[in-house]
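Journal club prep, shared notes

We agreed each person brings one worked example of a sequence with its structure written out as tokens. Mine is ABC transporter. I'm keeping it raw so we can talk through how to read the token line rather than staring at a rendered picture. Sequence first:
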Amino acid sequence: MTSFRPVLRLLPVGALLPLAACISFGADPPERLLTLNAASQPEAGQAQSSRTGRAIVVQVPSSPAAIANTRVPVRTGDTALAYVKDAQWSEPPTRLFARLVSDTVTARAGMVVLTPAQSFDDPSANLGGELRYFGLDAATREAVVTFDASLTRAGQTTVEKRRFEARVPVAAIDAASAGPALNQAANTVATQVADWVRGG
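Then the structure, token by token:
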């Protein structure tokens, strides 16, 4: 009985190089990843309890498709959008913004921020809304953050709505200018939201 054994041949390294040039194992990393940093943050080690303090749930806001990804949009006209070259958020800006608002509300309003699951048996307030715009405006050379907030205060069923907006000048429409300016604008909006929530 005749048996056949496969023959393995090793290709020279030079023969593999043209193939390697055609294969991509993922997109090239962006020049920089952007994130948000809250100007007002809870103090480390500070204990909080929803039993003795006012509580609130801060929802991740909805958003238009243009900012539902990790790129930084630029308004180039009344009906036109582009994206900043080589700039990308570390995660979708709605999540970054919700986290920044949570830290700001905790620090400025003295409220306990809960997750929806934690608030199941707690009469907490609820803050949601839509992040309408989070990007640059080429015509005015500004970073723009627009947030349509909706608030249901603890123990109430009525919904309060208010629009918040902040604009910060940018030196250029590029990745280096986008991050700091949008961080400043987001903090301005978060501060306004925290003061509004605290006033109830």
